[in-house]
User: What shape does this take?
Amino acid sequence: MQLTQRHLEYWNKNLTMTAILLFVWFVATFVLGYYARELSFNFFGWPFAFYMAAQGSLIIYVVIIWYYARYMNNLDREFDVHEGEDD
Assistant: This one.
């Protein structure tokens, strides 16, 4: 099956956004956690390392999921491949 140019454009936009969000996930998971001890300051009354491990990363993950779902819904509408009722 040969993909049209429109399908390739849709897929490239999807892959680009996925790569960007994976990079954000990587930074939030590994880079901030690795350097959190060196960033020894209080954040809302807690040490920054504790905050990032207990709360900050989870908030970032939820924001990543929310943004990806919103982005893909808009992209699906733009390329007329959305599911469900029309708004």
